[in-house]
């Protein structure tokens, strides 16, 4: 393109567009565009964190506080008795804690080769040697001004895995025997 053609083409542009192009600050505009999604993401994370904390405080999400032990029944007993230290628990009484051999066999067969076992790093051999189901029967009473949890007599299965290095058992999950619904 020669100078004459360029000059003719430029003279046809409206002065308004030229002044906008000269004053265009790309860095300022891109920061503004990034600021809005950033604020939205921060707000969503804050809400999720607050909801999670509120659910924990109300007892809706409540991890088992346990003391790992070489005896799986003692690990479960420590978790149940640990409920008494929570501000919404009035009474906890452990009635029975025992290894359930038949349930252990059933659950091991169910987990063997499953996606869940693979995601947790449990081989079939590991499950056969280092997995156990403990049945616990206990009574618990809650302060219903602080939690929505139901109280009364509870029967619950605890699924435990053994740390191959320390020999200590830890609760991996729990479920009600009547419903089979996990209560993690």
Describe this protein's structure:
Helix content is about 45%, strand content about 20%. With about 180 residues, the chain is an alpha+beta fold. The chain has two domains: about 55 residues; about 100 residues, no CATH class. The protein has a four-stranded antiparallel sheet. It is elongated and about 95 Å long. The chain starts with a helix and ends in a 9-residue tail after the last strand.
Write a brief caption for the model.
With 184 residues, the chain is of the alpha+beta class. Helices cover 46% and strands 22% of the residues.
Number of strands: 4
Structural class category: alpha+beta
H and E order: HHHHEHHHEEE
> How much of the residues is beta strand, in percent?
15-25%
- Total number of distinct structural domains: 2
Question: In angstroms, what separates the terminal alpha carbons?
Answer: 73 Å
The percentage helix is 40-55%
* Helical run tally: 7
Low-confidence stretches: 53-61, 180-184
**Which of globular, elongated, flat, extended, rod-shaped describes the shape?**
elongated
Strand order of the largest sheet: 1-2-3-4
Task: Return Rg in Å.
Answer: 30 Å
Largest sheet data = 4 strands, antiparallel
Summed over residues and divided by their number, the pLDDT gives a mean of 79
Write the layout of secondary structure elements.
Blueprint: H1 3-11, H2 15-23, H3 26-57, H4 72-82, E1 89-99, H5 101-111, H6 115-119, H7 124-130, E2 131-142, E3 152-162, E4 169-175
Antiparallel strand pairs: 1-2, 2-3, 3-4
Core attributes:
184 residues, alpha+beta, 2 domains, 22% strand
């Amino acid at each position: 393109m020669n100078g004459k053609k360029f000059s003719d083409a430029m003279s046809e542009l409206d002065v308004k567009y030229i002044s906008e192009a000269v004053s265009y600050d790309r860095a300022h505009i891109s920061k503004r565009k990034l600021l809005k999604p950033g604020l939205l993401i921060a707000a969503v994370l804050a809400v999720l964190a607050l909801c999670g904390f509120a659910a924990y405080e109300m007892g809706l999400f409540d991890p088992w506080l346990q003391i790992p032990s070489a005896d799986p029944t003692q690990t479960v007993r420590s978790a149940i008795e640990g409920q008494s230290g929570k501000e919404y628990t009035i009474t906890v009484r452990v009635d029975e804690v025992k290894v359930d051999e038949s349930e252990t066999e059933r659950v091991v067969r169910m987990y063997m080769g499953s996606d869940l076992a693979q995601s947790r790093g449990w081989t079939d051999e590991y499950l056969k040697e280092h997995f156990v189901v403990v049945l616990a029967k206990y009574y618990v009473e809650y302060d219903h001004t602080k939690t929505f949890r139901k109280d009364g007599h509870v029967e619950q299965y605890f699924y435990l895995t053994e740390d191959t290095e320390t020999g200590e058992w830890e609760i991996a999950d729990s479920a009600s025997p009547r419903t089979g619904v996990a209560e993690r």
